Amino acid sequence: MTTASTLLAPVRDLAAGPREFFDRAAARLAAGARPVTFYGQPADDPASLTLTLVLEEEGRLSATRTAVSREKGFHALTRKFPALHAFEREIFEAHGVKPHDHPWLKPVRFSGPEPRQMDRYPFYVVEGAQVHEVAVGPIHAGVIEPGHFRFMCLGEVVHHLEIQLGYQHRGVERLLLQREPRALAPLVETIAGDSSVAHAWAYCDALEALAGLQAGPDVEASRALGLELERIAMHLGGLSGIAGDLAFLQGAATYGRLRTTAINTSMLVCGSRFGRGWARPGALRPGVDAEKAAAIRAALALLARDVAIVNEHLLSARSVQHRLHGVGVVRREQALEIGLVGLAARASGVACDARASLPGDLHAAHPVRALTERSGDCWARTVLRIREIDASIRWLGGLLDAHPALAPSAAPLGALAPDTLAVALREGWRGEVVHCLETDGQGRLRHYAVQDPSLRNWLGLALAVRGNEISDFPICNKSFDLSYCGNDL
Amino acid sequence: MTALLVALHLAALLGLPFLLVGIVNRTKALWAGRKGPRLLQAFSDFRRLLRKRPVYSEVTTAIFRVGPLVVLASTIVSALLAPVLGRFAPISFHYDFVAVAYLWGLGRMAMMLGALDTGSSFEGMGASREATYSALVEPALFLALGTLAAATGHATFAELVGAGARGAAPAIVPLACAVALFVVLQVEAARVPVDDPTTHLELTMIHEVMILDHSGPELAALQYASALKMTICAGIVAAVLNPLSAADGPLLVAAVNVALVLGVAVAVGFVESLVARLRLAAVPTYVFVAVVSGLVALLATAGWQGGAR
Questions:
Q1: What is the pTM of this model?
Q2: Which residues of A261-296 are buried (b: 16+ CB within 10 A; e: fewer)?
Q3: Preferred mutation among A154, A319, A468 to probe B, highest tally of B CBs within 10 A
Q4: A319, B278: Cβ pair inside 8 Å?
Q5: What is the ipTM of this complex?
Q6: pLDDT digits (tens, 9 = 90+) for A34-76
């Protein structure tokens, strides 16, 4: 394989005994390996559960797996490595297999064989005469996704925030197994509608690896065009939202207008403002001829010019600086400890960007540097969006120089390799999107695990608002801009 | 003449609040590159709300229903005491500006009790914030008005802020008072940078969150009362800045004052377009600007009167 962000391995090569599996996982995590995903699936033996752990170390993905007894469970890794907390909660919720000594087995999305009732969930309680609780959602005042936030406050200051999600649970992973594996792209694009291209590309990577197909440079360039346009558009939308929440009219209006330019460019290329239909396995769907390339360049030039003007307005406004600096801080150690990914991690100084750390041919030819900020506050997450927009516009300029035209093509997808695991990772605007596809002995899909970066970053938001004013929660929330449906699947 | 002025005053109280909201929103729309809604959109909204039947939460009591009426009544009475047209108020008596401040206080108390009556944690937070910031802004209001009373030697609201009453007082006195009263306007009328009238984020609201549960004619009453309060504040600021004197005739003074009121609305729109909202914890610091402006006016007045003697 020439794409470092995709891992393809025969299932039998991955197996390890439980003791060996956990010892080795602990040793490698302690040595600095980054957990990418950790999930469970039913084993052939109904009394046991198969666990798969994917790690990233030194620019390489690796996977190991083991089978544990459903009855006995296993010893949680979360105590030592809190970054795994969401994964182990997910395993417990979906399969009922207990990670012993896990500090907080809160349901991730209230699904699984024994669904706990959301309205009976025991939230943390803070006691004291000055303490009051504020419950927000799941139905909100704006047209946004449902999620429940329970604040424990001392006056105006948030002592603790507990976030409850799962209202959007659609059974995505189960649904994906019921369809023809080569035709899942339209479904995959709706896992998180603001990251359609990222999810679709990760799916294509994994499926092409299983089919033994190598995406050519033009195919990769086309998908990268879609992904970076998605990044620019969603970052602009995020900046508009941040400015709106600050009541900073100039930013809210202008970034919002420019986002339209970005998504309309996606529509020009592929017919969908949100990049639906852009990536399809084995195919280069939306062709780019000289005329379209010129239109894309013109749109990028317009964006570069106008974004610079409004950036200057936003960043130089003292009132904006005062609202964002030092608000919603996630320190670097915290970010590493809880395993933040993507934009939120980079804003806290963790250089976590799959385009840079796991470059394939494309990103080797057109390198991307992982941009980071140090302060980990709302200001950092805002400034980082601005810098990433600039970087993506420049990067796309280079890409269009190297690929002045992209002709549509389609390669036939053969049978999928039997008993094989494919893990694909793509850096969406919010962070890494991970798709794990596994085939059975006949080459049919046996398991499909989807992971949106939101799953790992929601706890970051909860930590960020501690000790902040409750009136600053909306701006903290917007600066993370996490997906509810991406978490709820 | 007085009858005509009373009629004009009442007309201003009925029309100006809707127009001011329209001008603020139009100013913001133009800054954002949009056309914006019609200037009298607020009046259309008002009429629409009047036709609706209010919805009441099961947990609320009579306090919740009485609140909007008290707010409306107290604001209207205060508007009859305030010289929105420059140098005239239909009702006028010695130290009537104190009555204005506490009529607002009465309305505020009714609104806060109504908010607490809903049992919502949002509304409770809003009531708590309203209590805090209105307590902070009260000294600024009294410093500015008290200074003007001292500078002019008058004791009724209409005369002490009214056009030309300042006589020979140095320009710094009315200017500093206007700054203080402009901040009072932003706090009392819940405008940026103190509050955000357009946000949907309950956790950040002050005024808006307290009226979340109101609907129909009661919501119309609260929105009108809020706009009327902004009109009163703008009228006072305009009167303080009004360059004409009593000798110019009350109609000319009124015309110039209305123009200045519209100018104040544009200024409110400019601030909302160019400045982000303050952090809630920083609002007291901002209100302090008003207090300091009031103090500057007071010291300037003391220095001027001391020197004159």
A1: 0.90
A2: bbbebbebbbebbbbbbbbbbbbbbbebeeebbebb
A3: A319
A4: yes
A5: 0.85
A6: 999 999 998 888 889 999 999 998 888 999 999 998 888 889 9
Name the DSSP class of A406.
B
Helices in A31-115 by DSSP H: which ranges?
85-95
Domains of chain A (ranges, CATH numbers):
6-108 (3.30.460.80), 172-488 (1.10.645.10)
Q: How does DSSP assign B115-181, residue by residue?
A: HHHTT-HHHHHHHHHHHHHHHHHHHHHHHHHHHHHHHH---SHHHHHSTTTTTT--THHHHHHHHHH
Q: Give the residue extent of every domain in chain B.
A: 2-303
The DSSP H or E segment spanning A377 is none
Neighbours of A459 (CB within 10 A): 21
Q: Which residues in A lie closer than 8 A to residue B201 (C-beta atoms)?
A: 141-142, 245, 474
State the alpha helices, DSSP H only, in A109-248. Answer: 172-177, 185-188, 196-210, 217-245
Burial of residue A352, with CB atoms counted within 10 A of its CB: 0-12 exposed, 13-18 middle, 19 or more buried: buried
Which tokens go with A11? Answer: 């299932």
In chain A, which residues have their Cβ closer than 8 Å to the Cβ of B25? none
Question: How many Cβ pairs closer than 8 A exist between chain A and B?
Answer: 88
Contact B277 A323 (CB under 8 A): yes
Tell me the pLDDT tens digit for each residue of B270-298.
999 999 899 888 999 999 999 999 999 99
What is the Cα–Cα distance from A419 to A440, expressed in whole angstroms? Answer: 5
